[in-house]
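Try it yourself: sequence plus adenosine-5'-triphosphate, in.
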Amino acid sequence: MAVPTIALYASPPSSVCSTPHPCSINSYGSSDYELNPRPPSSTSSSTSSAQKPIVGGLSCLFSSPSVRHASSSSFSGGGDDLGGALWHDRGEELSSSFCYSPYSSLSSSLKCRDQSPVSVFQGPVSCSSGGVGSSRSPPMRIARDRSLDLHRAGRDGLFNGFVRNALGSCLDYDSPSFPMPGGLDEDSSVTVVDEFTFNMEDNFTEVSCEPYAKELLLGAQLRHKIFYDDLVVKAFYEAEKAHRGQMRASGDPYLQHCVETAVLLATIGANSTVVAAGLLHDTLDDSFMSYDYILRTFGVGVADLVEGVSKLSQLSKLARENNTASKTIEADRLHTMFLAMADARAVLIKLADRLHNMITLGALPFSKQQRFAKETLEIFAPLANRLGISSWKEQLENLCFKHLNPDQHKELSSKLVKSLDDAMITSAREKLEQALKDGAVPYHVLSGRHKSLYSIYCKMLKKKLTMDEIHDIHGLRLILENEEDCYTALRIVHDLWPQVPGKLKDYIANPKFNGYQSLHTVVMGEDMVPLEVQIRTKEMHLQAEFGFASHWRYKEGDCKHSAFVLQMVEWARWVITWQCETLGKDQTSSIGNANSIRPPCPFPCHSNDCPYSYTPHCGEDGPIFVIMMENEKMSVQEFPANSTVMDLLERGGRASSQWNPYGFSVKEELRPRLNNEPVNDATRKLKMGDVVELTPAIPDKYLTEYREEIQRMYDRGSTMSSRGAFR
Ligand SMILES: Nc1nc2c(ncn2[C@@H]2O[C@H](COP(=O)(O)OP(=O)(O)OP(=O)(O)O)[C@@H](O)[C@H]2O)c(=O)[nH]1
Ligand SMILES: Nc1ncnc2c1ncn2[C@@H]1O[C@H](COP(=O)(O)OP(=O)(O)OP(=O)(O)O)[C@@H](O)[C@H]1O
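Structure, out:
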């Protein structure tokens, strides 16, 4: 469980300071430049308008080794298309929670990371480029014209010249370490390292960056020690190089978004690989950097994560443009697809990226704000819920609520300003803690939270309640060793505060149908504010987090999930909890030894004796979710395991006409496309997250040729039949 991170640990938190660094960088340029312009119409300016968005939108989604470079250099603009203003909306901090564990003090010291004692500024860092001497000079802005792709693909000197002109002297393009798009990157003789190591001296002596960028790094380092990690520092400089000159719609440097995304990841305790990938998350879509370059420079771990985020961005963009997420079934399939197609850590990075974009949504036009807020509520907040990162889920939901229902948001927040009283929770927690000590009742975790604004709003709507009728706005949760201790603790709670009649629920003696067990009571706490107290053993808690009764399933209501979905989400949750220091530390790691937070068995097979298995041998028989594009419409389709392209075509009623070996067009342009490549083999098995275009892109040139050919056939046919008529 991810009770958020304003945690009162006995050990110091990894973040030195949780508030954003005050360095304000608002005056670097105007806000008229927007990233991620529409996909290029590079094929032909007169390409059928019905086909253009599909071609461009998908062009960089897929990356078989042979097309990887082409993909990354196609500027498909897969990012969020959000150039939001960068300020932190403190209003979102309405939701917070507290957690104290007397057993947790060891965990952070055990997990301490290797750190370089070398400050990045100890090396001879030079600041070249236009802004020498001025700490506030704006970074250069590159007018990113997608027609450049043609030059890039052609690897001619024009492109190189353009880059040199645009970037000035910042980069050493002749250095083999700088990937020229379409050129050096494709060198397949690259040696790939699994464990990435590098020498700080070698790599940073040539680094030159603007003063604002140094401030950004310093700010991040002040907030989290992980920003001193060699890999992370290197990723910062590469991100700086890649995004140099790019601005957000707010006028802030693009790099700031990368840093804030990485800081969010650091805040939940993500490791250096994830934080580095967070810094680089937009480089494939929005810069000249290629997969191969990232692979060479950072190793396969970081490269695959960045690529995973890029794919998720592309799919998210597609879904947004097609309003797919508003259809419940499709939204559900998208949640599953997102988790199944990429490493759960890539989803984590995407969530951090989206959270920062939502925090800075104000700089976008109203219509875009609405579109992003809707998609976030339908796709990303549920994903955060599934992954158990409740602090992000709550922030995302609250931000969406503010943009989508501003009046209700305002009304509710003004009412709650006084009631969301953190001091009250702290004081109640301390009181109970003392009472447990006095009663010699040992416990594992005592945590507290207040309910988020959006969760209160939903509960009011769902249960038709007024705010005063909601009794769990403030809550404590106590996790103990055994059932006996649970009942003893319940008596202590009732001795401390008056019980609210009719609110005691003994789900230990009478578990819920899904197996959920816990004692619940509501008492009148400090200042006679209702306080819900949940009391359970650690086994019950694990079941409430990862088992049948897991909180994400409880929150998704009556949805019937397949065994595959359940296992996949569970696996993703384990991975995330296990890998993110802070999430694990909050609750799970402190209630058992380190192994207890490791996934119990390798995915996707759970062993027979695994308490978390839903089917004994699920193997690879789970469903596959595939995106189908037809006539510019996107749908998310579910297929059984081992389905092929032919199955998909049959479902669309296309198999007979298109796939008859004689009838099938020899012209590649007319074939369906799988992940942006013409389909050559109809028996190819479909994979999770595949994108199939049934309406292939037909450049005008070919259309004209075909029209002419059909006309000739028609003319021949009519001549023949008229001849025949005379015979
Ligand atoms: N993980 C998990 N938590 C549950 C489940 N059921 C209830 N809870 C938790 O217990 C809290 C209260 O549940 P109940 O005591 O059954 O209350 P209720 O009747 O549903 O409604 P209220 O009393 O209005 O909250 C919820 O807010 C959840 O935090 C479950 O199946 N799984
Ligand atoms: N009394 C409590 N003490 C500590 N954490 C709690 C308590 N009740 C819920 N939580 C946790 O707080 C997070 C947010 O839950 P949220 O308030 O949205 O829903 P809920 O209270 O569990 O369910 P519902 O809204 O149906 O009552 C979840 O991680 C949940 O497990």
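One thing you can check immediately is this: Residues 700-726 form the longest helix (27 residues).
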